[in-house]
Design brief:
The strands form three sheets. The protein has a five-stranded mixed β-sheet. The chain has a two-stranded antiparallel ribbon with strand order 6-9. Strands 7-8 form a two-stranded antiparallel ribbon. The chain has three domains: about 5-110, 2-Layer Sandwich (Nucleotidyltransferase, domain 5), CATH 3.30.420.40; about 120-180; about 205-230 and about 245-315, no CATH class. It is α/β, with parallel strands linked by helices and about 325 residues long. Strand 7 and strand 8 form a beta hairpin. The protein contains 13 helices and nine strands. It has helices at about 35-45, 60-70, 80-90, 95-110, 120-150, 155-180, 185-195, 200-210, 220-225, 250-265, 265-275, 280-305, 310-315; strands spanning about 5-10, 15-20, 25-30, 50-55, 75, 230, 235, 235-240, 240-245.
């Protein structure tokens, strides 16, 4: 057997398909085969260089957690990136066996970096935060229906909105209690309160869905959030730079916090006015303010520094 083995795993509720490169070996593991408990010893016997699976849901996170706990190198990749790689290197057909083979090829060719495993409490908080976003989406849809609904249906929709508000309040209390029980949450609570425009929802999003904040440099951090200008130049064509990609829910929360800072903080208000005076569009100016506030917060987390006016003036 070759010294370096790369494994691609297609994890689903159906049987899990595994593919090895460069040997070409593959097998399927059913839940009747003890699931994850039966998978770990078999992979430990192979001693792969890297294992790759698509990061798509809770079942995949459970597999990653079990493999990482066993000391096996495993990385979750964006499903869109995995599918684009498969289209570029293989057939257009899509089956579980082909997906596992493409993931093994991706592991060998790209070698994505395994990410550190979040602790159990952080993963639970991230799940609660995702549920909160679902409830907010449901409430927004009900509020949009309320105005155009027939009068006989409005009491029922209003009762749904009231129930969703109650559930959101309970969930917010649960999030705050769980977050404050974590030492890292207590240490950063005071730091969060000093940042203009950052309320409790943005603080939770930053803490749970934005763990890379601090070590990254400004260009990579801006690309991660989705506020970095992307080149669109092909040959002699010179396209207009636009922002694209990134974590949409993080960007949406951060844009609202920046909007508050632009309206009420004198430094960001003056920065936005200066950009608007030079002819920048409102959204372009807001995006620039997002990057400015992002850079300051990144430096604060990196150096464990509070919010000083000197840092704002020099940023």
């Amino acid at each position: 057997m070759p010294s370096q083995i790369f494994v691609g795993m297609d994890v689903a509720k159906a049987p899990w398909d595994m593919a090895l490169r460069p040997t070409g070996e593959r097998w399927a593991l059913t839940h009747a085969d003890a699931g994850i408990a039966g998978l770990v010893p078999r992979l430990q016997a192979i001693a792969p260089q890297l294992m790759v699976l698509e990061a798509t849901g809770s079942e995949q996170r459970a597999v990653v957690a079990a493999l990482a706990a066993a000391g096996l190198p495993v990385a979750g990749v964006n499903p869109r990136h995995a599918r684009d790689f498969a289209k570029a290197t293989g057939p257009w057909a899509q089956t579980d066996a082909l997906d596992a083979r493409a993931l093994a090829h991706l592991a060998e060719a790209v070698r994505p970096m395994p990410r550190p495993l979040p602790d159990t409490q952080a993963d639970e908080l991230r799940t609660l935060l995702a549920r909160r976003r679902q409830l907010v989406t449901m409430r927004t849809a009900a509020q949009n229906r309320l105005g155009s609904a027939p009068p006989r249906l409005q009491p029922d929709i209003q009762a749904q909105i009231t129930g969703l508000n109650t559930r959101l309040t309970t969930l917010d209390d649960d999030l705050d209690t769980t977050r404050r029980a974590r030492p890292v949450g207590q240490a950063r609570e005071e730091l969060r309160r000093r940042v203009p425009g950052m309320g409790p929802v943005c603080a939770r999003t930053r803490l749970l869905d934005w763990p890379e904040l601090g070590p990254l440099n400004r260009p990579r951090l801006a690309a991660l959030v989705g506020v970095a200008p992307v080149n669109r130049d092909r040959g002699t064509r010179r396209g207009r730079r636009t922002t694209w990609g990134g974590r949409a829910h993080v960007r949406a929360t951060w844009s609202m916090s920046t909007l508050v800072a632009v309206r009420y903080h004198p430094v960001f208000k003056a920065f936005d006015a200066r950009l608007r005076a030079t002819g920048k569009a409102a959204k372009v100016a807001l995006t620039a303010c997002m990057r400015k506030l992002l850079t300051i917060l990144n430096a604060m987390v990196k150096h464990h520094a509070p919010w000083p006016p000197e840092a704002v003036r020099s940023a």
